[in-house]
# Entry
Amino acid sequence: MKVLMFGWEFPPHISGGLGTACYGLVKGLVHHNQDIIFVVPKLWGDEEPLADFVNASDVVIDYREKKFKKIWKNLTYLEVSSFLVPYLGPEEFQKYTDYAIHDRTDVDESVFSNKFEFSGKYGKDLMKEVSRYALVAAQIAKSKDHDVIHAHDWLAYPAGIAAKEISGKPLVAHIHATEFDRSGETVNKPVYDIERAGMLAADHVVAVSHLTRKVVIEKYGVHPDKVSVLHNAVLDASIIKSSVYKNVPEKIVTFLGRITFQKGPEYFVEAAKKVIDRDPNVRFVMAGSGDLLNRMIERVAELGMGTKFHFTGFLKGKDVDDMYAISDVYVMPSVSEPFGIAPLEAVRHNTPVIISKQSGVAEVLRNAIKVDFWDVDAMADAIFGLLHYDSISKMFKELGSEELKKLKWEHVAAKLVTVYDKLHKQQP
Amino acid sequence: MRTICFYFQVHQPLRIKPYRFFDIGADHYYWDDYSNKSIIRKVAQKCYLPMNALLLDLINHYNGNFKVAFSISGVCLDQFEAFAPDVLDSFKKLVATGHVELLSETDSHALCSLKSKTEFKRMVQNHKEKIKKHFNGYETKVFRNTELIYSDKIGGMVAEMGFEGMLTEGAKHILGWKSPNFVYENAIDPNLKILLKNFQLSDDIAFRFSNKTWSDYPLTTEKFVTWINALPIEQEVINLFMDYETFGEHQWAETGIFEFMRALPNAVFKHTNYGFSTPTEVVRNSRSISQIHVPIPISWADEERDLTAWLGNDLQNEAFSKLYEMENRVAKIDDEEIQRDWNYLQTSDHFYYMCTKFFSDGAVHSYFSHYDTPYDAFINYMNVLSDFILRVKIMEEKLAEETQ
# Structure
């Protein structure tokens, strides 16, 4: 099967879990002898040659062609209706609106260069990139032979839809996260609209957990028969033996992730206070950065635990591994986590984990303590228990590594291949 | 005779290096030697050396009729000793003229007067010894507290230690209709004379000198003497208190600040009936006009003249209380490095960096901070403090073993 896949990032140039998941999936598919054309907005040249990579920045588009005009018309509609774009400040917003107003009228005069330089990053002109990306997708769909189209998350959905319109091949929409995970109940409507359009246009929707599947059905109104669950896996299930030792005598309890609403950092802080009140010989570490960081720092000061609760800022590379390695307990109190790969990394470092019931990873990881994100008492109990009752953490360590071995991308890809086959057979 | 009393604050904190969570328990050296040294050297070239030379000239030229006072923090003296012996020598030369007074303060420019009488007295004593050692047995007589922080109670403690006078801010909300241009006395102990900063005239030099949007820009010595001549005749002492770094550092040489100071004594002698005095001379030669009541501590900082630049938010309060929780434990430990770090960790600047008052005085605050945000300052300080607490604990355990 030839798969035309649209992503947004690919290792080693990633800013989040999406790129890692795409990488794992592509690896698994290659294992099952699938041919993949992987399109990303920007290629860096050092991607592992698993697939036929296409750099969207390199594709020349003939805007005057009729079919493109049609797609562009729909896209400009998307753009113009979506002035409230994520991550845009007022300044960029201004630039953006200027662009939309001035540039949409005379498309076939080719005011744009035929090639568009994508940044491949989330940020300024994100919507513009998403839309351009769709145009490029259409061009690729025309020139590259394929049997099925697969798009990862909303940024690539317009591309998937455009490709489908050109080639008429079945479309799979892969949901790694929804707008409800990112923003809670105050969703960004234009993003929601793109997500929904992608899911409705898709012939099949794949969600990373049952939790996410439920959201797709309930909040986006997608027919349940069309949605299946495909849990993420780990690239490497081996246990990491670290030579790093901690320098402090106390036990260390760690939160590692973006310090944003979605990740529930405040519940970790409150639970920390409860634990420290009972046992002062514990240190808490909040590793990461995000818009709630300063509020967390203030709260820690207010609770008077500044010498027991530490902030490391954003960690990368070896520091992340070291952090897992010196932790005695890892906590992921996410309010909403479609999957959540980080606890599996903790397991690889033999660190016992506590995860919120509101995370997809809770569906696959049995040897972990699961609590409701809001239940700080239960969270404190769990932390205290793992720190003091060695038998549980010992058991988790032994069984956790066994569990990891079952979470392979080949298994995930095998399931996906059956989805592809089914869709292919349904083709007229 | 009417008089002008110049006092310059000389202080540089020992800045903490970027200290990460991973360093806790492993790295026990907290100080950013590179930046501390380069800042001392930079300020030495721009301010301390040229201004000391200028003052020495003026003192010699006017045969001691021109005089000034300095308060040099202990943490700054330590850094002169390590990084700028030339600066220390130039101060010694100034003091040796007999027309330069040195004031007492807390050794590490600390805020301990607000927290602990024992620690306050210890710090003041240490500073007194340090001054004595560096300046040929010099005995201080007048006290200035960190950031001119003062209250009746603090004044009481200072009087107990035998000082004759103390400097503080002529804060509006304390003075009301009264003038700062008189000598006052402490409300608890009338033996302690209080000198109040004339913030109008002081800040004309220290802050507004190069401000082109100021209606009186440019400030000339002619203007300045006109203003002081216009003061009511019974007002006898003008206290001009400012950071020494005003000269060449806050106000660059290009602004003409050095020329202004060079010309000022002559203008004063020629066109006014003012002279110059040191704080001790003022305290001894003037009668106090009344008590001054300061029940709640004041300082010379910001529009509010209160403590909120150092102890105004949760971050600062947390760091401050966690630090002083250690006081009694540290006192029992006889270890040079622990004592050194205990001193330097008390320096008020560490708390100043955590200030979140971003509005009216935010610009001044960020000018003085090397951290991107107050939150960074807090995190860094708390990491260091956590390590310090660990070290104290280990020392205590060792001590307990030995006594068994």
